[in-house]
Amino acid sequence: MTNPDYIPDSEHRGFMAALSAQLRPFASLARFDRPIGGWLLYWPCVWGVTLAGGAYSHWPLLLWLLLGAASMRGAGCVYNDIIDRDLDAKVARTRARPLASGAVSLRAAWIWLFMLCAIGLIVLMQLNPAAIAVALGSIALVAAYPFMKRITWWPQIWLGLVFSWGVPVGWAAVVGANNLAPALLLYFGAVLWVVGYDTIYALQDAEDDALAGIGSSARAMGSHVRAGVALCYALALTLWCAAFWQIRPDGLALLALLPAAAHLAWQVIHLDTMGAVSALAMFRSNRMTGLLVALACVTVGSSA
Questions:
Q1: Which residues contact 252 (CB under 8 A, 6 or more apart)?
Q2: Spacing of C-alpha 212 from chain mean position
Q3: Is 77:33 a contact under the CB 8 Å cutoff?
Q4: Taking Cα atoms as reference points, which of 203, 206, 200, 253 lies closest to residue 230?
């Protein structure tokens, strides 16, 4: 059974529409037709840089990290699809993916993966030694992620560990290994944010995941999804406030997070746990959350 509200989450417009028929499957394999994932990987990088005070002094770094987020998110998606190609064929939302459908061969997918990693390596070389060491620390987490849905009901937690890694990378790129407490608080807050928004995303696949035996936080929370997402977001905001307090122990500094808090509250209030259309739109709205937290980080980090 598939959700009657199911809709594809790809966007075959602009860049994708301009590609040839031969190249389009490779772009889809790297999710270039779904730019939201790249933004969600990028915003924690921005948070780390800007809360460390590098919004203006390290602005070229923000551009390098944007390229790195796009390429490494693409590489991660290719790797995930290589591992999950059999499971993807069993889920309505994913059975049309290039590997699951046969549009791209396994050999070609591996070559494409190494090409994307080469771009990531170029970005890595722009960082200082401390940031390089931190960035390399994510390899094991990334490699293990596709297997988490097979062994745990909470793969979203692992995804949070991976997708939030840009926080310590960005922090280390500005201040090295100094005063790590704000970065760690910001990081674990980001992890909880990811668990929240990816639980919303997983609502699209809840029925198919049950049939395929795939674990997810949406299935684990069951009828308590709204409360679970609310708790994740509340804890994330608490940790972000603690991170800001480490930089600027002033109640006014915490007000910078009010727009982000209001946006997350809006998501919880309007979350429709029965419709894939609503779940996808709510998930995508976290691009705005990332921007609002980034502006808060700029405000606090630049005024410390």
A1: none
A2: 24
A3: no
A4: 200
Count of domains observed in the chain = 1
Report the distance separating Cα 250 and Cα 252, nearest Å: 5
Residue 248 in tokens: 């600027």
**Lowest-pLDDT range, 128-142, 206-220, 282-296?**
206-220
What's the rounded Cα separation, in Å, for the pair 9 and 240? 30
Calpha distance 278→271 (Å, rounded): 7
Burial class (CB in 10 A: 0-12, 13-18, 19+), 117: middle
Domain that holds residue 33: 15-303
| Amino acid letter, residue 100 | A
pLDDT on residue 2: 39
Does the pTM surpass 0.85? The reply is yes
What pLDDT digit, counting tens, does each position of 27-82 carry? 999 999 889 999 999 999 999 999 999 999 999 999 999 999 999 999 999 998 99
Whether 4 maps to a domain, the answer reads no
* Cα–Cα distance, 190 to 239 (Å, whole number): 9
Which domain CATH number covers 175? 1.10.357.140
